[in-house]
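Researcher: Structure prediction, please.
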Amino acid sequence: MRPLAAKSVQKATQTTSVGDVATAANAFIATLSQAQQATLLQTFNSTNVKKWSNLPCGSQCRIGLQLSSLTATQQAAALAVVQAATGTGSGEGYDEIQKIRAADDYLAANGGGSGYGSGIYFIAFLVTNTSNTTIGATDQWMLQFGGHHLATNITFGNGYITGPTPKFEGVEPLSFTSTGGIFPSGTTVAPLNEEEAGMAALFASLTTAQKTTAKLSQTFSDVVLGPGSDGQFPATRVGLQCSTLTSAQQALVVAAMAPWVKDVDDATGTQLLNYYQTQLANTYISYSGTGLFTSNADYARIDGPNAWIEFVCQTGVVFRNNIHYHSIYRDRARDYGGNFYGTYTTVLGTKSAAAATVFSLFPNPAYSGADLQVRLSSASAGTYTVRDLLGRQVATGPVQNSEAAVPTAGIVPGTYLLTVETPGQAAVTSRFQVQ
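Model: Predicted structure follows.
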């Protein structure tokens, strides 16, 4: 049953948008040979989701189909999937992805060599059943697209985007003039200009005292939570707490996050940015280096209850006399749809296998107005909390004598998350649907 539009409870994005991505995915699959389909369709598991990198390491560190191995028709169909899943803003989303690819062509033509180029980008669909060559609008799956300086990982489930992260973006050189190819000759291409400008404006707004609090003692040569660092969020946030900022400075924090958050489709990006804004009081900003983002090891971080964004300057690899940018956007609850990594501080990270050892719930799906029954496996008491896909609390109550009846009256049909906490055990979460 298609989830209805919510008034008080919003979802990550509407089913029609996710359906468009699935339609584009199926159109791409239809252009492929059986062997190509087998390479494209990979198992959605904890091993495969982390097979991405920012390095120019080609298929050694990635899975899926390389764009340059495809026909022009197949390439167009592949990129149509990426475009359907990402933002439409100038300099963000799909436009930014294309600019990063164009930068790799520029590197290849200006001393970088054959290891660089817009054709050395890979696309994979991570699915629960690789023998099924059709993507359903409500299927759980992940779109993975990336290459040098780019990793796009967008997870879908139950008709929604369940996670737009991890997202890595970098660029070398910072700006260049296109000589043709992806963009017309004479076009100025600067993929991460908005990201740098947002961070620079934020840290330029701080007073001397605020900068002292925000400055980190460490030196950072790269992002901390890049590839291979899934779930390793620091337990303690450091730097300057945003609750101490002026309203104008808080607006700059939101503006600094926006270029990363809005890379996913427009609806999801807007809703997530609004959600992160509600968490500003417990969000911290910090930096290392000059704070100007003009020198090697200039570094910035935004660390909230959910959002994690890092931005760092490095010495150029091909253009050694210049800097280039690396950045990472993660969400403590939504990386890979919350299915695999991390001890999450919100309930959006769901680990169904772990939840099953603690409690059961039925019926699932539940019909609106009928109680959802929760039964504990061993403990006799605890609490339950129901939240929507943006983490907002919908209901809470006690679990007594090993069971609880969770009322669904008044809950808008859709997908929800139920967390159970029992004495001496970590909170566990499972998804359920209301129809």
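Model: The domain at 352-434 is CATH 2.60.40.3080 (Immunoglobulin-like).
Researcher: Thanks, that helps.
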